[in-house]
Amino acid sequence: MRLLVIEDNRNLVANLFDYFEPRGHALDAAPDGVTGLHLATTQTFDAVLLDWMLPRMDGREVLRRLRTEHANAVPVIMLTARDELPDKVDGFRTGADDYLTKPFAMQELEVRLEALLARANGRNRRRVLQVADLSLDLSTLEASRAGQPLHLYPACRKLLEVLMQASPAAVTRQRLEYALWGEEPPDGDMLRSHIYELRRSVDGPFETKLIQTLPRVGYRLHAGGSEEKAADGA
Fold first, then answer.
1. pLDDT score, position 175
2. Over the range 34-45, which residues count as b (16 or more CB within 10 Å of their CB) and which as e?
3. Is the separation of the CB atoms in 194 and 210 below 8 Å?
4. What average pLDDT does the segment 33-39 reach?
């Protein structure tokens, strides 16, 4: 997920980054309503975490403008200490998709986000993923690039799915390893070998390279081509 956090509490923002980034999600933050509205309307996010009490423009006004003036349907979860029923009703009527009162558990927020995005995506992820001329059909498990079929081992196909779901955001090595092996990754750097095989299929025959290595972070699939390392070495 790519999340926008509009929140002026620096400790809470830091906690959100510490919790979600190791799980492979990309976060941006805005400390006030004006900056948050600008980011929400000029960039693409999977969801917005919006505080009610904000400097420069409160969360309710951010949400109202997001929905009415910009016709932006991005899922929004209100994060606020205002726990009275009239406040909740006001938040939902203004356009919030969910409402979570502070303090809250990070795991509960994560589950709510997952459920919210599942509903927003028709109760399931996209069945055909597309990045540039690369496509992956999640129903048939067929992958192709520029109309040419790609022959992928199951592990490479799984890595490709995770990278395409996150694109253009980065995916950490830890998240990719978890996708393949869960809590018990094998000894040695098997992930590097699988990424090498994936690159051979996805990028080898083509001039534009889509898979990028981000040193000390992980990998990403980027439609703009790679000006970064072509060799594997995160």
1. 83
2. bbbbebbeeeeb
3. no
4. 94
Q: 3-class DSSP state for residue 69?
A: coil
**Which of 221, 215, 218 has the alpha carbon at shortest distance from 173?**
218
Using CA atoms, how far residue 103 sits from 35, 109, 149, in Å, is: 24, 11, 50
- 68-100 pLDDT, tens digit each: 888 788 899 999 887 778 878 888 888 899 989
The average pLDDT across 212-219 equals 90
Tally DSSP H helices, then E strands, for the chain: 8, 12
Per-residue 3-state assignment (H helix, E strand, C coil) for 6-59: ECCCHHHHHHHHHHHHHHCCEEEEECCHHHHHHHHHHCCCCEEEEECCCCCCCH
- How many residues are given for the chain? 234
* Cβ atoms of residues 6 and 62 within 8 Å: yes
First to last CA, the chain: 21
pLDDT at 228: 42
Reduced to 3 states, what is the DSSP secondary structure of residue 177?
A: helix
Question: What phi, psi does 171 have (nearest 5°)?
Answer: -120, 125
- Is the pLDDT at 124 greater than 90? The verdict is no
**How far is 92 from 98, CA to CA, in rounded Å?**
7
